[in-house]
Amino acid sequence: MEKGRVLLTLGTADIGKLLVEYTIPAIIAMVTVSLYNITDSIFIGHGVGVMALSSLAVTFPVMNLAAAFGSLISVGAATLMSLRLGQKDYVAANYILGNVYVLNLITGILFSVTVLIFLNPILIFFGANSQMLLYARDFMIIILAGNVVTQTYIGLNTLLRSAGHPQKAMYATITTIFMNLILNPLFIFKFGWGIRGSAVATIISQFLVLAWQVWFFSNSKSSICLKKDFCRLKKEIVKGIFVIGIAPFLLNAAACVIIVLINKNLSYYGGNFAVGAYGIVNRMAYLFVMIVFGLNQGMQPIIGYNYGAALYGRVTEVLKKTIIIAVATMTFGSAFAELFPHSMASIFTDEKNLIDMTATGLRYAFMFFPFIGFQMVVSTFFQSIGKAQKTIFISLTRHVIFLIPLLIILPKYMNISGVWISISISDLASSIVAACLFTTQYRKLQSKKKG
Questions:
Q1: How far, in Å, CA of 212 to CA of 330, rounded?
Q2: Terminus of the chain with fewer CB atoms < 10 Å: N or C?
Q3: d(CA 251, CA 5)
Q4: What is the distance between the alpha carbons of residues 92 and 364, in angstroms, rounded to a whole number?
Q5: What is the DSSP secondary structure assignment for residue 88, as one 8-state letter?
Q6: CA 72, 365, 33, 86: dihedral to nearest 10 degrees?
Q7: What is the SS3 string spanning 20-31?
């Protein structure tokens, strides 16, 4: 009955109040993750040094690849879980939970072992030079050793949200970050463990929350319970998870290729400091991107329900409000980066050359941020109404179709500036593509609303 009242609210309650109710927990969780990434870099930049900070950027592709395998399982499982719970098929939901647990253990271990065996050549391929390699290796050995913890923690947290516990999922994320913020300075500054201390803090924090997640899902009184009987892999469930999860997997894998190209170009034309600058720019960009991610997560169920109920007027109202908030958020980020780039960069380091390079990167990378706010909402809108192909196409235009050729061509003529400009142009071009697709769909919505 409670679930019925929630669904009825989605179709009748004030759109503004719904957006606040659904987006605030998601935004808090997303911003918390982003703030952790920023503070983590600050601790490493000031506590270990500029070279350690630069080496973090080299580890991004490996982390993205690990995230790709994590999303292959968690995104597909979350969708299946929501569908089965909606059908009140609790046996299937329990099998999904058990299969996700086992799949994360298997992929987490296999990924770690494979990458650890070839870690040095992988890091060198991703842009590490002899100076960066030592720091990047020290960091990644610990992260990879705990990767099975990371993937299982993320997978179970995604299922917490799908199983009707969004606030518990938010609290789990915040608790992980809070513990990390306590352990990071302790291990780096007090114990003198350097960049390894940051990695150890991350794994310990995730392990403690993972232990709580397993305990929570082991409650035999709950309709969804992690039991041994449900941990046997079932072909139809594994296939369903992979079919749905392949899209985010490919997008994360594409992001890995992009980061490699950017790092190699920056290293060739600007040296270690340029790679470090990208790492800082990436951290700051994600602070604002994560806010819009959270906004989109809250928007998605509202649009999906109202579109399915043929309440097209409410769909357009949600879209308008969400686009306005997203564009305003990204405009603020763009203005801040244009006006105070040196101040933003100096948070991470005292090295003047690195600050100057970062300031330049911030101005270029944030140039078309308002358009990206619009593009992100449009992309989620298509996903919410069951047109995932358009969502994938929009993402591919930004990360592959436009950016890869630009990264190959522009740096040859413009050196390091060509790398930053490539990012900006791909943002603008993909936003134009999104606007064209959206205009056509919006007209259809308007005609349905009148009809």
A1: 35
A2: N
A3: 36
A4: 49
A5: T
A6: -40
A7: HHHHHHHHHHHH
- Joined tokens for residue 164: 């009707």
DSSP output for 154-172: HHHHHHHHHTT-HHHHHHH
pLDDT at 428 over 70: yes
pLDDT in tens, 215-242: 998 887 777 888 888 888 888 888 888 8
- Helices then strands, counting H and E runs in the chain, come out as 17, 0
pLDDT digits over 50-102, tens only?
Answer: 788 778 878 878 887 888 888 788 877 877 776 677 667 888 888 889 999 99
The model carries a pTM of 0.75
The DSSP element (H or E) to which 197 belongs, if any, is helix 195-217
Which has the closest alpha carbon to 126: 64, 44, 40?
A: 64
pLDDT of the residue at 82: 66
- 312, 385 in Cβ contact below 8 A? no
Task: Round to whole Å and give the CA distance between 350 and 352.
Answer: 6
Inter-residue contact 364 to 421 (CB < 8 Å): yes
Residues 134 and 166: beta-carbon distance below 8 Å: no
